[in-house]
TrEMBL record:
<dbReference type="InterPro" id="IPR006328">
    <property type="entry name" value="2-HAD"/>
</dbReference>
<dbReference type="InterPro" id="IPR006439">
    <property type="entry name" value="HAD-SF_hydro_IA"/>
</dbReference>
<dbReference type="InterPro" id="IPR023214">
    <property type="entry name" value="HAD_sf"/>
</dbReference>
<keyword id="KW-0378">Hydrolase</keyword>
<dbReference type="InterPro" id="IPR036412">
    <property type="entry name" value="HAD-like_sf"/>
</dbReference>
<dbReference type="GO" id="GO:0019120">
    <property type="term" value="F:hydrolase activity, acting on acid halide bonds, in C-halide compounds"/>
</dbReference>
<dbReference type="Pfam" id="PF00702">
    <property type="entry name" value="Hydrolase"/>
</dbReference>
<dbReference type="InterPro" id="IPR051540">
    <property type="entry name" value="S-2-haloacid_dehalogenase"/>
</dbReference>
<protein>
    <submittedName>
        <fullName>Haloacid dehalogenase</fullName>
    </submittedName>
</protein>
Amino acid sequence: MQAALFDTFGTVVDWRRGIAREVATLFERHGVTDLDPFAMADAWRARYAPSMAEVRAGRRPFVPLDLLHRENLEAALSLCGVDPAIFPSEELDALNLAWHRLDPWPDAIEGLTRIKARLIVAPLSNGNLRLLLDMAKRAGLPWDAIMGAELVRAYKPDPEAYLGSARLLDLDPSEIVMVAAHNDDLAAARTCGMRTAFVLRPHEHGPGQNTDLAPEQDWDFVAADLCDLAAQLGA
C-alpha cells in the first residue's frame, strides 16, 4: 500500500457535537427554546445524502457541498418547525461554516500522524476543498494532500469519487486503503479495487446510534480507532 484515504465526517471528525454546539449558540441568541440543538444537527445531516443523490442522478449539475449544506440548513429548520426567516441571512451563512470548524475525535491526530509516517494520508471526502482545508488548519489534521468530491466532480459512492482520486495520486486503486466508519463507503471503495479499513465510531450519531456498529463485510482491517489502525498498519 502507498496511500490511506479517509472518509472525514464521522470517521475523522465528530460532526454531531460540533454542529449542535454552534446551533445552540444561534438558538440562544434568538430565543429559540423549543428545538434541541442535537435534533437540529441530526435533521441537517439527514438532508446530506438526499441532496447529493440529486447530483449523482444528474438532476442537477455538480455543486460544492457548502452550497448543499446551506440549502439543507434552511430546509432542516423548516422541517423542525423553525422559520429560517427569523435568523439574519448572514448568521445562517456563518452557521453553515460550522462544518469547517469540526473537532477531531480524540485519537485522530495521533493516528493520522503515525499512519502518515508510512503512507500518503489524505481525505477522500464529499466535503469541498475549502471546507477540508479550513477543517485541517483548525484541527491540525496532518494531511499530505486534499482529495475528494470537488476535485473529481463526483460525490461518493459514485465510483468516480474513488477512481478519480486514485488517478490524481497516480496510484492503482489496489495501492490505496480506504478508511471509513461507514460500511457503505467501504463497499463502494472495495468495488473500485481499493483495500478497506473499518474504524468503529459508535457515538457518531449519538447515544441511540443503530448503524455501523460492526463491520458488515470481511474488510481488510477492522480497528477500534485510528491509533489501533496505525498499529495494524505497522506505524
